């Protein structure tokens, strides 16, 4: 599980609309990497909408915002189109990137145990180091807090 000041685990993942994104190729831009459980659920939709609403301010601060879930690229395409989302959504179908970031965890719901993504966000600075980590994110106000952290870099 990466900690603050660690080099962020690199990855290359397929994105909505086709193509791939490699984290290390985005340097020297800071990157806000938010992991979310599932496309088109209430909490995930609200989080993605909040990041989309603030995207011009993230861009003005020189930062990129990327969302990652285990959903397929096709599901990401539908999710983006349905809600008018603006940031790239990456598909981590095998959960390897989620595991590298320590967000693929055991969860319990309705008496069942399963593995899934713990809503988490990482701010990666222009040198590729983790500058800030938010675990077990509560959605309201989170995008604003991430924007303030970007501005503080």
TrEMBL record:
An MF annotation (GO) of this entry:
thioredoxin peroxidase activity
Record's Gene3D superfamilies? Answer: Glutaredoxin
The protein's matches in PROSITE patterns, at most eight in alphabetical order, are given as:
THIOREDOXIN_2
Q: Which InterPro entries match?
A: AhpC/TSA, Peroxiredoxin_AhpC-typ, Peroxiredoxin_BCP/PrxQ, Thioredoxin-like_sf, Thioredoxin_domain
The Thioredoxin domain covers 2-153
Residue spans crossing the bilayer: none
Q: Where is the active site?
A: 44
Q: What Enzyme Commission number(s) does the record list for this chain?
A: 1.11.1.24
Q: Which GO BP annotation is one of this protein's? A: cell redox homeostasis
Top-level taxonomic group? Bacteria
Q: Which reaction does it catalyse?
A: a hydroperoxide + [thioredoxin]-dithiol = an alcohol + [thioredoxin]-disulfide + H2O
Keywords carried by this UniProt record: Antioxidant, Disulfide bond, Oxidoreductase, Peroxidase, Redox-active center
Any one GO CC term of this protein is: cytoplasm
Q: Which CDD domains match?
A: PRX_BCP
Which leading EC class covers this enzyme?
oxidoreductase
A Pfam family cross-referenced in the UniProt record is AhpC-TSA
* Family of the protein in this entry: Belongs to the peroxiredoxin family. BCP/PrxQ subfamily.
**Subunit structure comment from the entry:** Monomer.
Q: What does this protein do?
A: Thiol-specific peroxidase that catalyzes the reduction of hydrogen peroxide and organic hydroperoxides to water and alcohols, respectively. Plays a role in cell protection against oxidative stress by detoxifying peroxides and as sensor of hydrogen peroxide-mediated signaling events.
State the protein's name: thioredoxin-dependent peroxiredoxin
Organism, by scientific name, is Roseovarius spongiae
């Amino acid at each position: 599980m990466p900690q603050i000041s660690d080099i962020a685990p690199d990855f290359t993942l397929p994105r909505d609309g086709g193509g791939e994104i490699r984290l290390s190729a985005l340097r020297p831009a800071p990157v806000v990497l938010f992991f979310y459980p599932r496309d088109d659920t209430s909490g995930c939709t609200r989080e993605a909408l909040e990041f989309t609403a603030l995207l011009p301010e993230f861009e003005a601060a020189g930062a990129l915002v990327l969302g990652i879930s285990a959903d397929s690229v096709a599901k990401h395409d539908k999710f983006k189109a349905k809600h008018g989302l603006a940031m790239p959504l990456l598909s981590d179908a095998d959960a390897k990137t989620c595991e590298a970031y320590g967000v693929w965890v055991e969860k319990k719901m309705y008496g069942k145990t399963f593995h899934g993504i713990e809503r988490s966000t990482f701010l990666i600075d222009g040198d590729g180091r983790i500058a800030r980590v938010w675990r077990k994110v509560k959605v309201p106000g989170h995008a604003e807090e991430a924007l303030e952290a970007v501005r503080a870099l």
